[in-house]
Specification:
This protein is mostly helical. Helix content is 54%, strand content 5%. The protein is built from 18 helices and four strands. It has helices spanning 12-22, 27-34, 38-45, 53-63, 67-87, 92-97, 102-110, 120-131, 146-153, 160-174, 185-190, 192-197, 203-216, 255-270, 287-300, 303-312, 317-327, 331-340, and strands spanning 219-223, 234-238, 244-248, 277-280. A four-stranded mixed sheet has the order 1-3-2-4, with helices on both faces. Helix 4 (53-63) packs across helix 5. It starts with 11 loop residues before the first helix and ends in a 21-residue tail after the last helix. Residues 146-150 have low confidence and may be disordered.
Length: 361
């Protein structure tokens, strides 16, 4: 583990790693010699666990370094850490906020947005920079749009800290998308047929081409992992450069849900539903959401053609596939619509469904 230079000292786990190298001893061997698990040894070396008096005594036997030496190093580090926390005004409230953020912080590590080997105070300081706030505790005071308030009134579990961190994650990932154009909604309308045709491409190819098409229209498009506490299906935000961020989650892997949600979010863009930023919750039902739903339904399946299909009263697999071919969509699009409209049960025509598996942005 790398120590924090601002502390003026390092976690004793680094000293332990150095001594193991000097004595040509593996972590596994140290675990056997001390009677502690190899996982325990690794967490100490990585600075994620402190050296306890009992472990210090076992290290004295195994490495011939007095227990007092290990404990002194731990005390020195703990003292420096306390001074560091006080100096940077890190409160116990901020430290507590890290717990619900654990999963999203791990995800940020994958994109090198947040270093892995940080102590909790160090994480807070890095998060303040990443989230652009002076203290994690102010997150719950940041105002949200009407959709957020409606979501809360629906008694759906929303964690303000996770939701805010997720939005910031979307923004950071969108910054990596190369875009030269400003938002062009007319061009986006012209691209709707091309976007729709991509549902027949492989998932990874489709995602790449979607990014390219949206970039032409001045939109940074990303598919971002969803997290417990942030039950959203989309996020839209205007940038200072006249461009737009459009992020989607895949809360369910079904292709029909993905395509409906994608055109639902496009509707929000075309309908000017996001003045500055817009958090789209699937559980919120408003006139704005109903309008976006109608747009998505009609883009995927022609309204009159679908009505005529319902009048046939034939919803067999062959009929569904034939109608899907007529509409130039995947069969799962028709199945999903029939299920959503209550025409057939959610367990019907499962063989026509398609599930996506791809890495998020």
């Amino acid at each position: 583990m790398e120590g924090n230079e601002n502390l003026g000292t390092t976690h004793p786990g680094k000293y332990l790693a150095d001594k193991l190298r000097e004595q040509s001893m593996s972590r596994k061997e140290l675990a056997i010699r001390t009677g502690f698990s190899e996982k325990h040894v690794s967490t100490v070396i990585n600075g994620q666990k402190n050296i306890s008096p009992s472990f210090a005594k076992k290290l004295e036997y195994a490495l011939k370094i007095p227990a007092s030496d290990w404990l002194n190093r731990q005390n020195e580090y703990d003292s420096a850490l306390l001074d560091y926390e006080e100096k940077n005004n890190i409160s116990s409230d901020e430290l507590a906020i890290l717990k619900p953020l654990k999963d999203i912080l791990d995800y940020m590590n994958q994109f090198q947005l947040l270093p892995k080997t940080l102590s909790e105070p160090e994480k807070i300081l890095e998060l303040r920079k990443l989230l652009r706030i002076s203290s994690l505790s102010v997150i719950s005071k940041i105002p949200y749009d009407a959709a957020y308030r409606a979501q809360i009134s629906n008694n759906v579990a929303v964690d303000a800290y996770v939701l805010y961190a997720w939005q910031c994650l979307c923004e950071r990932l969108a910054e990596k998308v190369p875009i030269d154009s400003t938002l062009d909604k007319s061009l986006l309308r012209d691209k709707l047929s091309k976007i729709k045709s991509l549902m027949f491409a492989e998932a990874n190819v489709m995602q790449k081409q979607l990014k390219e098409i949206f970039a032409e229209c001045g939109i940074a498009f990303c598919i971002v992992k969803h997290f417990r506490g942030a039950p959203v299906q989309g996020f839209i935000k205007h940038t200072e450069r006249g461009q737009l961020i459009l992020c989607m989650t895949i809360r369910q892997a079904r292709a029909d849900i993905f395509w409906f949600t994608l055109f639902h979010e496009i509707a929000h863009v075309l309908n000017n539903d996001a003045d500055e930023r817009f958090v789209d919750f699937s559980s919120v039902k408003t006139e704005i959401e109903a309008r976006a739903d109608e747009f998505a339904r009609d883009i995927l399946l022609d309204k009159n053609a679908y009505k005529n299909f319902l009048n046939t009263d034939d919803f067999s697999e062959s009929a569904v596939k034939k109608f899907a071919a007529n509409q130039n969509v995947l069969p799962c699009i028709v199945t999903g619509r029939l299920q959503s409209d209550g025409i057939i049960g959610w367990d019907c025509l499962s063989s026509t469904l398609l599930y996506y598996k791809w890495p998020e942005t």
